[in-house]
Design goal:
Blueprint (H helix, E strand, L loop, with lengths): L1 H21 L1 H24 L12 H27 L6 H30 L5 H33 L5 H31 L1
Helix pairs in contact: 1-2, 2-3, 2-6, 3-4, 4-5
């Protein structure tokens, strides 16, 4: 029975990777959209945050899905594809370290800025100054997480994964860390609301 499950998983992964190779941006957009929606629902569940009607599916879910579809995926696709092209065929230990440094100093700050500014707007920021305040409050916190997790993830990908498998691998890592940060933020907001009463 487990052999049948393994074949199915490999088959799904193979089909996903084939779609990723044929239609990379579209596949990444649909994947990010789906994962962002699931992530928002899961974080709400883990934080025990329900809507007024008792659902874990809030109005943030479609907004997070749109963020994944139109902002996160295209930015990530462009930055990671460019980084991979720059370091294509460069496999020395020095080159691998340079790739990690480039990712941490160029790719992560851009992705994290896009994330924070989008979260500011979804969270109610209506002016440039409000969005920048959210960015200032969260940028170094999220960069510290990136600076710890990103080198480890990239080193694992460089050592064990072919380049075409990097996207699902990084999506999994982003999903886990994103869910953790999201539910932690929700719990902190709940605590602030309780203290304000």
């Amino acid at each position: 029975m487990s052999a049948a499950v393994d074949v199915t998983k490999r088959s799904l992964l193979q089909r996903y990777l084939a779609e990723l190779a044929t239609n990379p941006l579209r596949t990444k957009m649909l994947t990010n959209m789906t994962l962002n929606g699931i992530q928002e629902v899961l974080a709400s569940y883990l934080a025990g945050e329900k809507t007024a009607d008792g659902s874990y599916v809030s109005d943030r879910v479609p907004k997070m899905m749109l963020y994944g579809l139109f902002i996160s995926a295209p930015i990530s696709h462009t930055l990671v594809t460019t980084l991979q092209k720059v370091f294509e065929g460069r496999t020395t230990p020095r080159d691998k370290v340079l790739q990690i440094i480039a990712s941490n100093l160029i790719v992560s700050p851009i992705q994290n800025t896009a994330f924070l500014l989008t979260m500011a707007v979804i969270g109610g920021a209506r002016t440039f100054d409000q969005a920048i305040a959210v960015w200032k409050a969260g940028f170094m916190k999220i960069m510290r997480i990136s600076w710890i997790s990103s080198p480890i993830a990239i080193a694992i990908a460089q050592k064990f994964l072919p380049p075409e498998a990097w996207v699902p691998f990084f999506n999994l890592i982003a999903f886990v860390f994103g869910t953790y940060v999201n539910q932690k933020t929700k719990k902190q907001m709940q605590q602030k609301r309780r203290l304000a009463k």
